[in-house]
Specification:
It contains 1 helix and 10 strands. By secondary structure, it is mainly β. Strand 5 and strand 6 form a beta hairpin. The longest helix is centred in the middle third of the chain and has 7 residues.
Amino acid sequence: MSRLTVRVVEARGLTAADAGGKSDPYAEVRIMNKTTDLLPTIGHLGKSNVCKTKTIRNTLSPIWNEEFTFDSSSPMTDMIEVKVYDWDRFSTNDCLGVVMIPVGQTLAMGRVDQWYNLTEPLVNLTGRRARGSIHLIISSFGMGSMGMTPPQPITTAPGVYGGAPMVAPAYGAPAYGAPAYGAPAGYPPAGGYPPAGGYPPAAGYPPAGGYPPAGGYAPAGYPPAGGYAGYPPPM
C-alpha cells in the first residue's frame, strides 16, 4: 500500500463552456485501477473514490489550492486521474479536459511539482476541444507493494549497531580494539608472523648426531657379539 497526496493548485487557458466566454471550473481527482475501473475516461464508476475541489465561477484560470490524500493498493498499475469540469446548474457538467499520471512514476520521483496539459476524454459528448493545463503537486509516502522501504539512519552510539558491539572484518585492522573474527586473544603473536624460513627449531632438535638412519638406531649391545644363546638355532 502506498499513500499519495495530490494538491490541485490551479489551471489556466481552459475552454470556455458558457455563453459569456467563461466557465465555472472545478476538478475531480481519484486513483484509477485498471482492473476495477473499466471505463475510467467516460465516467467515475466508484464515486466514493473521487475527491472534488470547490467551483470557481466565471473564470478560465481558476485557483483551487486544495489537497487530497489517497491510498494506492497497486502502485505499479494504478493511475492518478484528474478531470476538470464546467459546472452547470440546469444541465450535465461538461468535461473540459483530463490528465492521467502513473502512480509508479510519482513514487520513483518522490515529489512532483508540474504543469500538465489537459487532453480530451475518451468520449467527448460536447464536441469541444480540450484546452489549457493544470498545476499539480504530488507527493508519495511509502513504497508499498513495490517491495521497497526507505533506508533508516543508524542512531546508536559509534561502534554499536542495534545495541551489539561491532566486530572488525577478518581482513584489516580490528575496529575499536576488537580481535578479528574467530581469532583468540593475542593473535597474531606479539613477535609478528614467522619469518619466511619458518620458526627456528627447538633446542636439541634434531639430535646432534643427525636423524636416525632409515632402519632406526640399533640399541646398544644389540645383537650381542656371539648372538643370543640358542639363537639362532643350530642348523
